[in-house]
Each structure stands twice: as structure tokens, then as C-alpha cells.
Amino acid sequence: MNAADAARAAARVMARCDALAAISEAPDGLTRVYLSPEHLRANALTGEWMRAAGMRVWQDSVGNICGRYEASTPGAPALLLGSHLDTVRDAGRYDGMLGVLTAIEIVQTLNASGTRLPHAIEIIGFADEEGTRFGITLLGSRGITGSWPESWLTHRDGNSITVEQAMSDVGFSAHNVQQAARKPDEIMAYLELHIEQGPSLEQEGLALGVVTAINGARRLNCRFLGEAGHAGTVPMAHRRDALAAAAEWMVFIEQATAAHGPQLVATVGALHCAPGAVNVIPGEVSLSLDVRGPDDDALATLLAELLTQGEAIAQRRGLNFNAEQYYQIAATRCDDTLQAALRRAVTGVQGRSLSLPSGAGHDAIAIAARWPVGMLFVRCAGGVSHHPDESVQESDVALAVQAYLQAVIEVAGAH
Fold first, then answer.
1. pTM of the model
2. Smallest Cα–Cα separation from 120: which of 106, 139, 99?
């Protein structure tokens, strides 16, 4: 693909992102959630673009929109491309959608030249990655891996509508969920293009990067328990101040995590102080801890260090400390062969390639449980995402289409 063709493809992608952004439940912001009328309209429009690119199109039993561009030998396993079409509330217009629409350009380019590869190309617009409506993430991608828990059907949205009822309301059947599952030998690998949702590419002055892993995460509810007391009568040396202990620990969390290197992050995002009066020494502080990183062993080492220090601070101050983990997801390593193909493609279009982890979750997490995955990142302005100000440059998208095409031809062209 030459630069002029890539520029035209990028212009189509940007225009189609705008068209999808207009399909929203609210006129003053982009919100599109699972099994809503807007979800089905977005599927229908995306399906039209897939057909125009030369694909056979269908909507599966969990609401993913799927297209297949046949291989040189019909029925061959497929290289799967895609991302998600659902959004958070008041979203940007590129998170998810950019990956689906650039994939369509890859197929359109192959079809226009009459090129068929040894492996088929399939594109999927996943139905629900964000979990905005029901609080369950990766519904679409776990649909094709056949890993939907039956309990998901009873989850309710803000209007007390269950997943099962929502499916019935739009003509789906909860009894057919497993029909979306794909056999292991039907797919050879998965590639996902996505905006970075972070500032690393922009800081490096690069349009594209190759993802090494999707961060694992641990989330904990933590508590320091001391003793409330009169703010005016209890001497400083006799206090068992839970908030002072929590503050000391938070500073340690920041410093220790930074010392472990740039790929690990830790956040205290919620804090509750009791009794919460201006003239009372805080007797109890509850706080959250979110720790993330691309390597599970390094993540476990950091978390152990943080919790050990929390215990030490509490003991020195005469308090009690406890922590309960309520969420864990393992780091997802991207396939080495797919990383190498993407690095070659990126180097070919921008001169060098940057490898970096993803701090956000993606459909590739679910897909990696069954097939090799690779991810290509595209620079986004200021690293802003999940916000109306989310922005990408059309020239970056043009480079992305070129690199994506080169990687797809290498991977799907292998015998």
C-alpha cells in the first residue's frame, strides 16, 4: 500500500468513526451499551461496510458483528482482527471503533487487488468489552471463546433488567449463547489495533507501538484501625491516628512502586475516614489499593512489599492493619511471533518500533485464553481516553493501516 492509498483509507476510517459516534443513546455525548438499539444499529452499519469490503457477514448469538474474507483455500483457519463497538458513558469515538474500522480497510485493500491469502481474514466488532450496562466485561470476546458463566444471565442493569431479558427483548435467546463459541482450529491468531490510552507514544514522538503484554491487576480493600479521640485533649505522642498511618503508607506506595520501574503502577483511589469530624482523631480509615503490571511475578513482589510495609506502619503506631483482595486478573502476554511481525511492520513505516505494555484491558485478554494474540497501538493526543476529547491524527491512522496490512499479510500469508 502506497502513501496515497493509505491516506485515502485513513480518511474513510476517520469519517466512519464519526458516523459510529453519531449512534448514541444521548445527543450530547457518545454512549452505546450492550443490547441497546444503538448497539444493533452500530452492528448493522459496520456490517454494511464489511460487505462492501467483500466479506460474508453475520451477527452471532451474543451480539458480535462478524465478517469473513475467504482464504485461497476455502474453509482455512482465519486470522481474526477486531476490537469492540460498545463504549463507556460519555465516551470518545476511537476506543474500540478504530480497531474495527482499520481492519475493514485491510480487507478492502486485499479485495480490491484480488488477493487471497492462505488463511482467511475474519473481523469482529465485539458486542461488549467495557461492561457499561451490566458491570460484566468482555462479554463479546468471551462469547467466542465459549467461556460465558451461566450466572451472567442473571446480572441486572440499572433498570433491573437481566442480561437474559435484554437478550430476549432484542430477539436473542439465552439458550443460544454457546453457539457463538468458535472451535480452536477455526482461528489461528488474533490481532487488535487500539489507541494507546496513555502518553508513551506521544512522548517518544511515534505514531505506532507494539504491545508486549496487557497488565495484570490486583484490587484490595484495606483498613487501618486505631482509636478515635478528642482532637484537643489527646497528646500527639499518645495518639493512634488511623489517617496518619494511611497517609504514611500512601507515600510509601508511591515511592516504592516508582522504585520497581516504570511498568508497575499502584493507586489508592478511594479513602474513607471515620468518624470524619473536624475535632476528632480518625479512628478508622478504609482505602482501596489497585496494583497493575505486565508481569505477574513482579506484580506479586511489589504487592507483598506494600502489604508488609502497611503491617509495619500499623505495628509501630499501635494500630491494626488488614487487607482483603477482591479482584485479580493475570497479565496477558502477547505472542512473541506476532510481536515480531508487528515490530517489522511498524519499523517499516516509521523507522523504529517501541515496545510497551498496555495498562488498560482489552478483548485480547479473553482471546488469549484460546489463541495467540498481538496488539498494535496508535498514538492518542495527551493519552486521553474514555472522554469526549479522545483524539487521533489522520496521518497516524494512515501509518497504522500500512503497518497493519503488512503484518496481516505476513501472518495470514504463512503456510
1. 0.88
2. 106
